[in-house]
Design brief:
The chain has 744 residues and is mainly alpha-helical. It has helices at residues 13-16, 24-57, 62-95, 114-117, 122-141, 143-156, 171-181, 189-202, 207-220, 235-253, 269-284, 301-309, 333-343, 356-372, 380-387, 390-399, 410-421, 435-450, 456-509, 515-534, 536-539, 542-555, 562-585, 593-610, 621-627, 633-660, 707-715, 727-743; strands at residues 296-299, 351-354, 511-512, 615-616, 667-671, 677-686, 691-695, 701-705, 719-721. It folds into 4 domains: 13-220, no CATH class; 235-476 and 729-743, no CATH class; 511-616; 646-722, SH3 type barrels (Roll). 62% of the residues lie in helices and 5% in strands. The longest helix has 54 residues, at 456-509.
Amino acid sequence: MNKQSGIHYLRDPKQAASSKPVPAEVTRIRDTVVAGLGDLLQGAFDAVDDSLFELANNARSNNEQNRYFEAMREIRIKRKGVERQFQTSVAGLFADPPRTGQTQGETPAYSTSADTLSLVGDEDLEEQVALNAMIGKARAHFQGPLLQLQARFSQVYPDASDEAPVNPMAPEHLCGAFIEAIHALEIQIRERLILLKQFDRYVVSNLGMLLDEANRILIQAGIIPNFRYHGKSGQQAEKKRTEASTAASQSTAERPGTGGAAGGEEASPVFEQIRQMLAMQRANAGIPARSSNTQIRVVGHAELASLLSAIPLADSYSPDGDLSEGEPVTVDLRAIVEQLLARTESEDGRKPALNEVDEDLINLVSMLFEFILDDYNLSAPVQVLISRLQIPILKVVIRDKSFFSQASHPARKLLNSLARAGIGWSKSDEKAKDKLYSQIHETVQRILNEFDGDISLFDSLNREFEQFLERENRKASLVEQRTRESERGRIKSQQAQQTVDTILRKKLARHRLPEVVRDLLVNGWSRFMFLAYLRDDVEHRWQESVKVVDDLIWCLHPHNGDEERDQWVRVVPGLLKTLRAGLEEVSYNSSRLDETMAQLKHELAEAFRTNAVAETVQESPEEAAETGEEGELPGAQKSAVERQQELEDAAIAEFVTQIDSIEIGDWVEFRLVNGASFRCKLSAIIEEADSFVFVNRMGLKVIEKTRLELAHEMRRGRLTLLEQGALIDRALDAVVGSLRSKTA
């Protein structure tokens, strides 16, 4: 790949190595980041070496194996240089940080458009797509720390501004430094994509700890210790945002004994970010702060929790019926709360209203469930069941805001467990007979019936559900293991039979042999060859079994020379002994084996005496075309087929890359032509047969496809890869991304 490829490098190597004075506050961060990234990169290179070695071991041809070994050798030789170049480029980012001219959340510098795609080669485009995906994922996952770092770095560097902020640790800059460093590697696109994948897995995915450390160092230096988001300059907008922030602080401070957070908990950083963006939306819409309106009475946190506890959860969902009946419906939580507030009376005649914190909590829960109920990765029945938990979860977050910041929160863990367990559930499954569905249904039902504000209920339910899953998964794992072993054995048996049949067909097609010999080879010796193929990795008898066929055919040929006739005399006794032993091993015609061997001896003796038993058969052009050994027809047909195959491969290349990214244990959904669908998990990839085996959640095989067949299914829209990440984490990321796009 070169600089005309469409991938834009950060700077020339000479420029990256420049030693521009670094602000004192940044020197410590630079040294920490360069050392940390160096350690992470070593892990990435070790993983690349392991991946290439495994691919070479499983290669289906010598050329493919040599390709992987050559790539491994190239990377090993130049690895230290790449590591040094990467660390030098990263250090250069701190000396002369690029001006992004954009805020976190806008389109990265590596984005592509329809105009630029046509200028990029296929291989470069694949690399650019992988790079964009890596950068986008990192920016979404670390958006909070990145936003804070950008604001703090822009304060440190004197020539930075709001219009041109700086952040040396932005993912696009670090990824660009790596692309620049691996430019010297002479490897093909597939190996380069493996390198990028491991860089993403070992380096980019672990940026969080380095970002947090950088923020901590800058906070210790007194650089924006209390971070607050300030958007683009503009006096009127700035005034509105200041008013909104002040009002939010006042409304929080008005609640005695809370420390500025609901339920006595520390404020969640994620929730605080969301609150700031919601406050900006209110300010931009001209909505006045509640605390400045004397006509309303702000309802306290404890009063709201008490009002919510009066809502009867189970009555609204027919506890005696099936909770998954019907479609998932988003509950208007704001309307429910407004109805509750309308019932409260105020002695001074003021209208009751929520404070901004509780209002933001209600809005956030509503947005979370909007994502959950629109999440295709959840199976429909489980999605409906989880939709019944909107009011209970609202009650939880009003009491305990750590739901948003702690992945170990009992309610959050339970929701994630329910979603993870239900990913393999299909619409076609029979709910009444399914233990998993019954357990999920019972868990939701108990929350609706028993939750009274005590969050420990979620903890006990989650423990019970995890124990149930452990038992079910143990059973499914045993079944899946047997399925996997059975499939591997079946596929190897198919390969063995096809190989034996092909070899015998080709060898027997060239010669006209006595019927007794043909029958012995096709119906008897073929069984021994089959077993030898299956056991070859232990007994190493496969080549010997093929040589017996060649020797038998040779012995039935005319031999006039003295040397050949002497060799015939030496070969035949051992050949007959080997044939008898092999046929006895496979129990071929055991009642007449002596008679068969006597007939074979007679045919061999006749051949030796008359030199005319076996005759070479002149192949017709059609037969030659089948074997591919004579004539011009096979070449012409192959050329046409190859041209068609090249067009087809080009059309599905993108989808083949996606199929190669699927790992054992990943879930997918297949849609049939009749509109039905089913979900299954990848259980095994049998490389020697190019076979992907999928099982259901009980471990039973449901479908088997080749790599190209899967790519075609994906191209037709009949195959969907399902995300398996934690449900609430994905929902929070989606909510933050949506709000950020609205406030950008």
